[in-house]
Write a structure and sequence with these properties.
21% of the residues lie in helices and 25% in strands. With 219 residues, the protein is α+β, with helices and mostly antiparallel strands. The chain has a 5-stranded antiparallel β-sheet with strand order 9-3-5-6-10. A 3-stranded antiparallel β-sheet has the order 2-1-4, with no helix packed on it. Strands 7-8 form a two-stranded antiparallel sheet. Helix 5 crosses helix 6. The N and C termini lie far apart (41 Å). One zinc ion binds next to helix 2. One zinc ion (ZN) binds next to helix 2.
Length: 219
């Protein structure tokens, strides 16, 4: 398949790489129909995140069609259309059982390394260095999705275009969280600093959560 690969600081190339395979019974293979570039990808591109290796496949915001399933994924079928959230979560550990999927204790095999670097370890993340598990990303034709019975969001409504649902993979929930922590009450006036993509989702979320007026501040 073709995939977007990191090949050194400030260098990204589309290369031919081996197709992903099912490795575990809870894996799925997704044929990517849409994928996004994240602001966080710039940290990889700029060389600020250590443990990137030449040839690493980038991308943690993607969606597509299930083309292959491990035998223990009971809630999805081949042909299903799914959006894949960027944190990889087992669904069974202490943190997952509390809904804290982004700090799953089982999905990042390099958690010890991440702890030394950041003081704590995130869950595994697609396409985001060995520190988050070294998983291949979704800026590619296909991706392997581990614990596919937990993360992927099934999109049943064919009237929704990829562009309308893709951002559930990361930046819509990221912007929503910014608005959610404000504990918005009806009638509140909310200021959003920065009107890039995440800021725009924060603006939309603030309105959804009942803000009467939202003021966006940017240069
Ligand atoms: Zn992202
Ligand atoms: Zn877990």
């Amino acid at each position: 398949m073709r995939a977007t690969c990191w090949s050194g600081r400030n260098t990204v190339q589309v290369e031919t790489v081996p197709d992903p395979q099912i490795l575990n019974d809870r894996d799925a293979i997704v044929k990517i129909t849409s994928t996004a570039i994240c602001g966080s990808d710039l940290h990889l591109y700029d060389g600020y995140v250590p443990t990137m290796t030449k040839g690493d496949i980038l991308g943690h915001e993607f969606m597509g069609e299930i083309v292959e399933l491990g035998k223990d994924v009971g809630n999805l079928a081949v042909g299903d259309r799914v959006v894949v959230p960027f944190p990889i979560a087992c669904g069974n550990c202490f943190q997952c059982s509390r809904g804290m999927f982004s700090i799953c204790e089982n999905s990042n095999p390099n958690a010890g390394m991440a702890e030394k670097m950041w003081g704590h370890a995130p869950a595994g993340i697609y396409g985001y260095s060995a520190l988050t598990g070294g998983y291949a990303g979704g800026q590619a034709e296909y991706a392997r999705v581990p614990f596919a019975d937990v993360g992927p969001i099934k999109i049943d409504n064919d009237d929704l275009t990829d562009d309308q649902v893709l951002f559930l993979s990361d930046i819509f929930p990221t912007g929503f969280m910014g608005a959610e922590v404000c504990e918005i009450q009806p009638g509140d006036v909310i200021a959003v600093f920065g009107a890039g993509p995440v800021g725009q989702f924060s603006i939309a979320s603030a309105i959804l959560l009942g803000a009467e007026q939202v003021i966006a501040i940017d240069s």
